[in-house]
Amino acid sequence: MKKVFVKTKNVKNFSGAINNLIDKSSATPKMGLIYGAPGLGKSHTAIWWATKNNALYVRAQHKMNTRWLLQEILAEIGEEIHGQISSLSDQCKLRLKLKPQVLIVDEIDYLLDRSHTIEALRDIHDTTGIPVVLIGMQNSKNKLGKYQHLYDRLSEIVEFNPFSKEDVDIIVDELSEVKITEEAKQIIFENTNRFRQLIKDISLLENLAKTNGLNKIDVKQVKGLKIGQ
Questions:
Q1: CATH 3.40.50.300 region(s) of the chain?
Q2: CA torsion angle 218 177 173 3 (round to 10)
Q3: How far is CA 122 from CA 7, 62, 127, in A?
Q4: Distance CA 178, CA 215 (A)
């Protein structure tokens, strides 16, 4: 499988939203939300964008509290970690004031029942003026609604949608090392609409071609496999 990053419509919308946040005036809130069903490539896209643009990427985890989150942000920045929560917060804000970076917090759903932790992110945004991007599942937009002060600061909201036929074609064409016919790609589209599953399908088809000495995959080979399962 080719090692390239495929720019689907979701990826382009993701990049556009963050660029819009960066370009907003200091008077406009710079918080954003990327949300959608699992398996559509949100985390994959976030890590790609953060690496490419020297942004901070932090993944929330089960039972993560405010101190833990601040420690993860400081570790991502490369700062030594010491002191109580207030000291950690001040340390984060001072560092990000001196050297602003986009902060991306993935798996935000783990924090949605922890008001103090959510408010810590709002505080970092308000104090430093940096773009703060939250990434969550399909219900995260509604759940964030209960934090009105934070929700009002979401000036960019992007939903990751299921892949279109064009997206699937681009993913297959750019990643697969074996030619896959248009008819075969149609079957893949009809049975698969998650990025991780598409990767598995492409790998399966590549192995099939290699094992059988095929230079392309057509409908016959695809119909004989458990595509999308």
A1: 9-160
A2: 150
A3: 30, 20, 9
A4: 6
**At the top level of CATH, which class does the domain 9-160 belong to?**
alpha beta
Please tell me the distance from the alpha carbon of residue 18 to that of residue 16, in angstroms, as a whole number: 6
Q: What is the pLDDT of residues 139-192, one digit of tens each?
A: 999 999 999 989 999 999 999 999 999 999 999 999 999 999 999 999 899 888
Global model pTM greater than 0.70: yes
Collect all residues with Cβ–Cβ distance below 8 Å to 99 and sequence separation of at least 6: none
Confidence of residue 214 (pLDDT cuts 50, 70, 90): confident
pLDDT average, residue stretch 193-197:
86
